[in-house]
């Protein structure tokens, strides 16, 4: 008997002793990963043949008719949702995922084709509608991976709408993406922090299954956007004119507001752990100083927050995302040619010294408590 089975059997016996369960422990069969991969590949292969048939019969005939393409895409989404609601194995789930993603692409492309590409893609209303459409699919279709991908699509739609609204008269200037995306970094950080702090209540209310993949997608999108803002922001862009003057502010806005969220999470954790007021003040001072130093690299600040949230939730995927964001953010910030080597070296050195000082203070506090 493996360790996992022994642990499960022991937990079942403890629950039975307390009268919370009755009877024998049910057997849970775990499909080997190789079988799951083969079944998933079979689902995608079946979806490929289905879509080739669809292309040969419907898409070719309706290639000049955007409305017909959009209706066909919506029908494919409905078929995928039906397959999800009926349940099934791995192959059926992957088949439904492939059909749904293709249907979403056909529906959006058909709508754009019918209304005019330039007219639609330069409209904030279209991107906002796309965000609402993807959000509705994320809420209605009961599949974790499908919800995660649709939630990412909703964030992309929201990013497009915000860019067209905030870029003003220069929507084609891709450098202004740092300004419009910079506001989404603290928003995403606040949402995933709120989810983490309220996770126990969400589990008790039975809403965790619905909201967890949405939180995963939010964290993934937030860290990706923070990396974009970190890499694209240029401190001397204000020399290019009033429109470009907003670009150098992007990383400071994103990093500063993300630091506020990080400080709020640190304070909530200090209170949960019942730390002394003096230690709480030291933790907040350290977080504020670190955030001020690394505000020019919001990906690092967001990565540190993701690392703390991952440790709070005991989530390995979030831990990996946080570490990757910190590493890539540091590398991207340090390799940026528009920052002087002296400024980058001083920032990293002081940030490292600050972290070591905080670690030393926490170790001394713990040692003093153990001695007492």
Written description of the protein model:
InterPro entries: DUF4401 (IPR025513). Residues 32-364 form the DUF4401 domain. The protein is mainly α. It has two domains: 48-165; 173-367, no CATH class. It has 16 helices and no strands. The protein has helices at 3-17, 33-59, 66-86, 90-115, 117-121, 124-140, 144-166, 177-182, 184-197, 199-204, 208-232, 247-272, 277-293, 298-313, 316-335, 341-371. Helix 9 packs parallel to helix 12 (247-272). It is flat and about 70 Å long. 34% of the residues are buried.
Low-confidence stretches: 236-242
Provide the number of structural domains.
2
Shape: flat
Q: Termini distance?
A: 44 Å
What's the total count of β strands? 0
Organism: Cupriavidus necator (strain ATCC 17699 / DSM 428 / KCTC 22496 / NCIMB 10442 / H16 / Stanier 337) (Ralstonia eutropha)
Protein name: Conserved hypothetical membrane protein
Pfam families: DUF4401 (PF14351)
Transmembrane segments: 41-61, 67-85, 92-112, 124-141, 148-168, 174-198, 210-229, 249-270, 282-310, 316-334, 341-360
Brief descriptors of the model:
372 residues, Conserved hypothetical membrane protein, 2 domains, single chain, flat, DUF4401
């Amino acid at each position: 008997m493996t360790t996992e089975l022994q642990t499960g059997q022991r937990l079942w016996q403890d629950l039975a002793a307390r009268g919370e369960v009755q009877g024998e422990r049910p057997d849970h069969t775990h499909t080997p990963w190789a079988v799951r991969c083969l079944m998933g590949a079979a689902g995608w292969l079946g979806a490929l043949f289905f879509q080739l048939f669809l292309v040969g019969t419907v898409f070719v005939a309706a290639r000049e008719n955007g409305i017909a393409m959009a209706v066909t895409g919506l029908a494919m989404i409905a078929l995928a949702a039906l397959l999800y609601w009926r349940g099934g194995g791995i192959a059926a789930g992957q088949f439904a995922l492939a059909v749904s993603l293709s249907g979403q692409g056909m529906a959006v492309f058909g709508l754009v084709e019918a209304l005019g590409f330039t007219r639609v893609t330069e409209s904030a209303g279209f991107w906002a509608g796309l965000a609402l459409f993807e959000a509705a699919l994320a809420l209605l279709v009961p599949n974790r991976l499908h919800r995660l991908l649709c939630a990412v699509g909703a964030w992309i739609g929201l990013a497009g709408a915000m860019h067209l609204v905030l870029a003003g008269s220069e929507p084609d200037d891709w450098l202004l993406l740092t300004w419009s995306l910079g506001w989404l970094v603290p928003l995403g950080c606040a949402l995933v922090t709120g989810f983490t702090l309220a996770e126990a209540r969400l589990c008790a209310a039975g809403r965790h299954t619905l909201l967890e993949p949405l939180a995963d997608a939010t964290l993934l999108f937030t860290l990706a956007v923070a990396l974009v803002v970190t890499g694209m922001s240029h401190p001397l862009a204000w020399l290019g004119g009033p429109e470009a003057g907003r670009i150098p502010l992007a990383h400071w806005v994103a990093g500063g507001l993300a630091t506020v969220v990080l400080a709020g999470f640190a304070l909530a954790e200090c209170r949960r752990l019942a730390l002394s007021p003096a230690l709480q003040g030291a933790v907040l001072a350290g977080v504020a100083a670190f955030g001020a130093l690394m505000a020019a690299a919001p990906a690092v600040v967001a990565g540190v927050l993701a690392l703390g949230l991952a440790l709070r939730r005991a989530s390995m995927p979030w831990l990996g995302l946080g570490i990757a964001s910190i590493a890539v953010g540091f590398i991207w910030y340090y390799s940026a040619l528009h920052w002087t080597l002296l400024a980058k070296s001083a920032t990293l050195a002081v940030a490292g010294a600050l972290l070591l000082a905080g670690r030393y203070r926490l170790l001394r506090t713990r040692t003093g408590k153990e001695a007492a």
